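Hello forum,

I keep getting stuck at the same step: I have a sequence, I want structure tokens, and every attempt I make locally crashes halfway through. Rather than fight my setup again tonight, could one of you with a working pipeline run this one for me? It's a single chain of 152 residues.
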Amino acid sequence: MDIRLGELKNDDVILLLKEHHEDMLLHSPLESVHALDLNALESTNVTFWSLWINNELAGCGALKELDKKHGEVKSMRTSRNHLRKGVAQNLLTHILDQAKNRGYERLSLETGSMAAFVPAHKLYQQFGFQLCEPFGDYDEDPYSLFMSKIIE
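Reply #2:
Ran it on my machine without issues. Output:
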């Protein structure tokens, strides 16, 4: 597995992010979808990575700086062709390592609350994330689940 910084102009990455956004809209109303678009992923406070297996896009993820001590996991997505191959685990490990290297004390995330998101909930729980209140600019939302982890 090869984790690359960026690749936001790559057609495969653009398609995976489009698939991610469309999938979120299947499970949540538009106002409850918090997936970042390409412009937001290019912001200076967001770092985006893509994961490749034999030069085939397998997944992506991003780290958004909320402040100097708090980061947010964004845009976690595994390609349908690479499910259950450890892609999400590798990306999340990488993001956690980057957060620790930056000196963050906390890493948080927002994900969907419906049954389709149960695999994501389980992954995050395996990495020590726990349910929390909305953080940053988020408000309570029945379609959202908020999780956070202290970085040690």
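Residues 2-150 form a domain with the Aminopeptidase fold (CATH 3.40.630.30). If your local run keeps crashing, start a new thread with the error log.
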